[in-house]
Amino acid sequence: MIKVHCLVSCFCEIIKRRAGGRADHRPFYFGVWDSDFDVTEEGRITYYSARTDHDHFVDWYRAFFGVGIREWYDFTRNAEHNWQLLLNLLDNKTEDQYVVVQIDMSMLPERENKFAAKPFPHFLMLSKTDNEDEWFMFDPDFRWEGNLPKERIKEAFLHNEYGGGYVIDAGRIENPSPDVIAGLYEATMRKDENELVSRLRDIVVSMAEGRGGRTLDTLLSAVQQLNILVIRKYSYDYALMFFRDRLGLSEDNYERWCQEIRDLVQAFHTVQYMCVKLSMTKDLALLPDILGHLDRADAIEFSIKSEIDRQYRMWKQAELAPGERIRTVVGQA
């Protein structure tokens, strides 16, 4: 599984493990490439904030696979109360249920944190073991599973300033129908906008020009989490895999566009590196190169979207009868 988005990775890993190939999880990644992020008033890009909302993923997950899912975390209560809720869930969960929990990964230095983020809110799954002092942690996004001391997990849970969690009943899983897949695609594909590029361009220029009290001193922190957001672009790979297999497209075509995805990610990494350099040196001669790399990222991403949309139209024509209405499944009573 490609590392893309921690919550979506949890959701999809459950489908992979429980459906036994009967349900295709790959189209659930549609739109993750443009999923929400936040920009603070100071111009700092952040992958997570108090305003982050996962209702989109939850509603579509239910519509896609027919699973039971509910949010168990109570945001009106404190962390200790929610810890008690978690204990109760783990004590009483069935074999068909999975408990998804958000913790602060920066509190677990024994676990990988290559992003060096602090705080580092991150979704994963937990269950009890025969040893009451150890819990089993399953982290699909980092492809890690193993036992950790319960008290260490508790510390990472209680010190997470955001919180969150879901319980999923995977006793019944449906294969997503073509109209539901098409509905998600149509709802999330932004063919005329690459928001991450646009926001980055605005942030860099505003700090270089000193607009709105912004300065180059804050550019380093502004792009610090860019490497976390950029991995979401690998969700394009899932779309390419899905359409390749459904349409019988060539492996060469698939590999060509995978290289474009890698080039896109590298363009963002280059922008991040150059922004750090600009922030530290205050050398405005770097600005044209930064904007040039952003323009390149923009062009690459538009070309990837155009190709995926071409494949989607071919798939839609093959899977949906002419004139068939795409059913709106999210938000209905």
Mean of residue pLDDT values? 93
Strand content: 5-15%
Distinct helical segment count: 11
What's the Cα radius of gyration? 21 Å
Please provide the count of β strands.
Answer: 8
Count of all domains: 2
Q: What's the arrangement of strands in the largest beta sheet? A: 3-8-4-5-6-7
Secondary structural class: alpha+beta
Low-confidence stretches: none
Report how far apart the termini are: 33 Å
Order of helices and strands: HEEHEHEEEEHEHHHHHHH
Shape estimate: globular
Helix content: 40-55%
Main beta sheet, described?
6 strands, antiparallel
What's the helix and strand layout?
Blueprint: H1 6-19, E1 38-39, E2 45-46, H2 55-65, E3 68-71, H3 79-92, E4 97-104, E5 121-128, E6 134-139, E7 144-149, H4 150-158, E8 165-169, H5 178-188, H6 195-209, H7 219-222, H8 226-230, H9 235-247, H10 251-281, H11 287-319
Antiparallel strand pairs: 1-2, 3-8, 4-5, 4-8, 5-6, 6-7
InterPro entries: DUF6005 (IPR046047)
Protein name: Petrobactin biosynthesis protein AsbE
Pfam family, one: DUF6005
Overview of the structural elements:
The structure is a single chain. The protein folds into two domains: 228 residues, no CATH class; 98 residues, no CATH class. 36% of the residues are buried. The protein contains eleven helices and eight strands. The protein is α+β, with helices and mostly antiparallel strands. The strands form two sheets. The protein has a six-stranded antiparallel sheet with strand order 3-8-4-5-6-7, with helices on both faces. A two-stranded antiparallel sheet has the order 1-2.
